[in-house]
Amino acid sequence: MLFAVGESAPFLAPEITDYNYLIKNKSKLKAVILNNALPKNCASLFEIYQKLTCSVPIYASQPTFLILDHLFCLPDKIKNKFIILEPKKFLKIGNFYL
């Protein structure tokens, strides 16, 4: 799952947030990829991890990880799932390249 939700971010409109699709397809989730530390892209990470009882890795840059940890005091349960992406290195998750 790539967190890049744009202007209609769930944290801006919680009444329309529906996690049913993710809950039903939880077994298909292989990783979470955070493209930056903007709240509109990351604010629902903690709620999704709780609702889905996720154990998949979270890929992010070092600055994104540090900012999120500083802002949200990441719990160890989530902090330990982070894998820091190295600049200019490719990452393959299933058939997906990043």
Write the layout of secondary structure elements.
Blueprint: E1 2-3, H1 20-24, E2 32-34, H2 39-42, H3 45-52, E3 58-60, H4 62-72, H5 76-79, E4 82-84, E5 92-93, E6 96-97
Parallel strand pairs: 1-2, 2-3, 3-4
Antiparallel strand pairs: 5-6
Brief characterization of the structure:
By secondary structure, the chain is an alpha/beta fold.
Note down, in words, how this protein is organized.
By secondary structure, this protein is of the alpha/beta class. The chain has a single domain (2-97), classed as Ribonuclease Z/Hydroxyacylglutathione hydrolase-like (Metallo-beta-lactamase, Chain A, 4-Layer Sandwich). Helix content is 33%, strand content 15%. It is built from five helices and six strands. The protein has a four-stranded parallel β-sheet. The longest helix is centred in the C-terminal third of the chain and has 11 residues, at 62-72. The radius of gyration is 13 Å and the shape is globular. The two termini are 12 Å apart.
